[in-house]
Design brief:
Helix content is 62%, strand content 5%. By secondary structure, it is mainly alpha-helical. It has two domains: 71 residues, Histone, subunit A (Orthogonal Bundle); 81 residues, Helix Hairpins (Orthogonal Bundle), CATH 1.10.287.890. Keywords: ATP-binding, Magnesium, Nucleotide-binding, Transferase, tRNA processing. Its EC number is 2.5.1.75.
Length: 210
């Protein structure tokens, strides 16, 4: 979102540097790389826990000589933008997230995972960890290889729901940190009227400035 809306400088990449850092992580553990990152970019080291992101931060520093945190976008729009956010009661949100996962399972998520296994899902560093794919891949393997026969589709649904709730919480935290977002109650009976009023006022204000 920030990359699409805000001014952003994208640092370069170097596959050779990244491959070397990945090998160092396998050999010495991610803790050693995190300690190195803390020496050159303490801001990023304090915020990043994911191995892939820590490696990326070190790659950026080695390639550019600047800390990864220096490339974070500012809250400055590339062009005029209006952001609208929707709030919802937490219990109601959790209910809807669970219903969504159940609907995904009924729509054939397990069969989709089976097809993707033949196309390299297990080897994909990102796709194999994606919410939903990771859990249903485990359920598929339980059915086909007997690796963990106690792990059922029902458990995959539950674990996917929990992971989705955690992801939604992180998303809300991230968006709420941006003071430019205008928040509305997602289930308010006047939601459409309220948001249209905001949008019309924004358009009128932009026209007056043109």
């Amino acid at each position: 979102m920030r990359a699409a809306l805000d001014k952003l400088e994208l640092p370069g990449t170097d596959p050779a540097v990244r491959a070397r850092l990945e090998e160092e992580s396998r050999a010495h553990g991610i803790g050693a790389l995190r300690a190195r990152l803390a020496d050159v970019d303490p801001d990023s080291a304090a915020k990043l826990n994911d191995e892939r992101r820590i490696i990326r931060a070190l790659e950026v520093y080695e390639v550019t000589g600047r800390p990864f945190s220096a490339f974070m976008p500012t809250r400055e729009y590339v062009s005029d933008t209006l952001q609208i956010g929707l709030n919802m009661d937490r219990a109601r949100l959790h209910e809807r997230l669970h219903d969504r996962v159940v609907a995904m399972e009924k729509a054939g998520l397990l069969a989709e995972v089976e097809q993707l296994v033949d196309r390299g899902l297990r080897q994909g560093k990102t796709a194999s960890r994606a919410i939903g794919y990771a859990q249903f891949l485990r359920a598929f393997e339980a059915q086909t290889s007997g690796a963990d026969q106690r792990y059922t589709v029902a458990q995959a649904i539950e674990d996917t729901t929990v992971a989705t709730r955690q992801f939604a919480r992180r998303q809300l935290t991230w968006f709420r940190a941006d003071p430019r977002v205008h928040w509305f109650d997602a289930e308010s009976p006047t939601l459409l009227e309220d948001t249209l009023t905001l949008i019309q006022g924004y358009i009128a204000g932009s026209a007056n400035l043109a």
